[in-house]
Amino acid sequence: MKKIPVKHIASTHKEQSNKGRFSIRELSKVLKGKELVQKLHKHDFYFVLALEKGAGVHEIDFISYNIHNYAVFILRPGQVHQLQLAAKCTGYLMEFDNLFYQPKNSITAQRWKKATSKNYCTVKDTRFKKLLSFLTNISTEYTAKQEGFIEAIKANLDLFFIEYVRQSNNPAQISNTTNTYTQERYEDLLRLLELNITKIKNASQYADLLNLSSYQLNSITKASVGKTVSELINDQIILEAKRYLLATPNQIKEIADHLGYEDISYFIRFFKKHTGYSPEAFRKNFK
């Protein structure tokens, strides 16, 4: 069973310390006047792409975004993406892992969850300048590496994510009046699904992990995105299947086994029911 290709923070840019890995680079220095084209892969770190001037295409978990000016993308570890950037794009590319930045304060942690639940945000030029100022501060601190620079970087990351959350509404969220508790539990569920989908497929087990009843959890997901927990579980299974179908050469049976299906015929029927394609046809049509 081959794994999806995983990119790591380049050794020339990572912090060699027990404080985690971090990198920030100006896009002009990454591109060096050439177009960037990446194949489907995933990261073991958080990936932040902020484009002051942008053109190209960014596909994240099989959702395609046309890149333009004043756009921000945030990817969580494990998400798959492929990226095409025009040679003249400007902005910043920032990468870091959980060890470097993982807010402990409950308010900051919840804001961080909100930020990382939004893969894409586009803002007005005046508001983008505010986001850009925080990234410029981070880049300056990272380059100079003066006393306390790591703390300064983290402080600016806090400010960056505050502004990012202000600027971006969750496009999947159907209710603008969803209360904070409901939103937090919904985001907690999404993270549990990402971590456990190959092992846990029962809605009541996710409710138990969140110390909620099945009724409470279904009420939360319906208020958040208009779906039941079971529907979200199915969505996550299909997403994981698509990731392996398009990013690896694994046989269908191997992918079914990875997802916890001993009966390959059942897995094929399940996949076709939710996508309209058999796994093999999906691979041929979209790879």
Would you write up a description of this structure?
The protein is built from eleven helices and eleven strands. It is of the alpha+beta class. It folds into two domains: 6-167, Sandwich (Jelly Rolls), CATH 2.60.120; 180-286, Homeodomain-like (Arc Repressor Mutant, subunit A, Orthogonal Bundle), CATH 1.10.10. The strands form two sheets. Strands 1, 3, 4, 6, 7 and 9 form a six-stranded mixed beta sheet that branches. The longest helix is centred in the middle third of the chain and has 20 residues, at 125-144. It is globular, with a radius of gyration of 20 Å. InterPro entries: AraC-bd (IPR003313), Homeodomain-like_sf (IPR009057), HTH-like (IPR037923), HTH_AraC (IPR018060), Tscrpt_reg_AraC-type_HTH (IPR020449). This is AraC family transcriptional regulator. Residues 187-285 form the HTH araC/xylS-type domain.
